[in-house]
Inverse folding.
């Protein structure tokens, strides 16, 4: 996923049982089709080049069974690990917090939810019959990716939509071309986890 044209859009399929989505760039070209394997105790995510699902470009695998603080490793098409995303367990109860680690186990980026109240209000109003259909339009969390120096790189924001199915990724600062894949895969995994949480 080199030379990405921003903004990038993630759109979930609501006609399937699985948690699948398509990533398209600013020109509308598909840059990835993300498929989450169903009924797995350990997360196993396949990232295809497009919706035809003929070529797997990447894979994301959890390091342990369903866990609050699991790490999710990134693998290229040859099966070589080149980084991971780690959820910061208890710190993520209020506001989601993740870290992106490189292949040398060095921390590179942070992903932080920008406003924890959005999730709380979404969860509360989502329990009220009738109102739960509209929370996808009213409450739209956003997540900022920053480097170790605290400089903002990209923002992922849920777009108003039924069933929370659309997200937009915009570039804020310069991104190292070697890190494009790690950042994109980290956000893809994070959006799967956070969408499930509400």
């Amino acid at each position: 996923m080199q030379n990405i044209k921003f903004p990038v859009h993630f759109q979930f399929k609501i006609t399937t049982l699985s948690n699948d989505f398509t990533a398209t760039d600013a020109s509308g070209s598909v840059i990835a089709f993300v498929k989450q394997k169903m009924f797995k105790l350990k997360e196993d995510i396949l990232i295809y080049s497009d919706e035809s699902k003929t070529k797997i470009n990447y894979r994301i695998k959890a390091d342990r069974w369903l866990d609050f603080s699991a790490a999710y490793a990134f693998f290229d098409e040859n099966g070589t690990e080149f980084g991971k995303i780690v959820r910061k367990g208890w710190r993520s109860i209020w506001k989601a917090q993740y870290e992106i680690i490189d292949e040398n186990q060095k921390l590179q980026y942070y992903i932080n939810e920008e406003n924890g109240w959005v999730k709380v209000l979404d969860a509360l109003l989502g329990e009220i019959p009738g109102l739960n259909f509209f929370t996808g339009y009213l409450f739209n969390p956003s997540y900022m990716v920053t480097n170790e120096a605290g400089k903002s790189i990209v923002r992922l924001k849920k777009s108003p939509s039924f069933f929370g199915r659309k997200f937009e990724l915009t570039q804020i600062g310069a991104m190292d071309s070697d890190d494009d894949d790690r950042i994109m895969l980290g956000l893809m995994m994070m959006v799967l986890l956070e969408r499930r949480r509400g």
Q: What stands out?
A: The radius of gyration is 16 Å. The domain at 8-197 is CATH 2.40.160.200 (Porin).
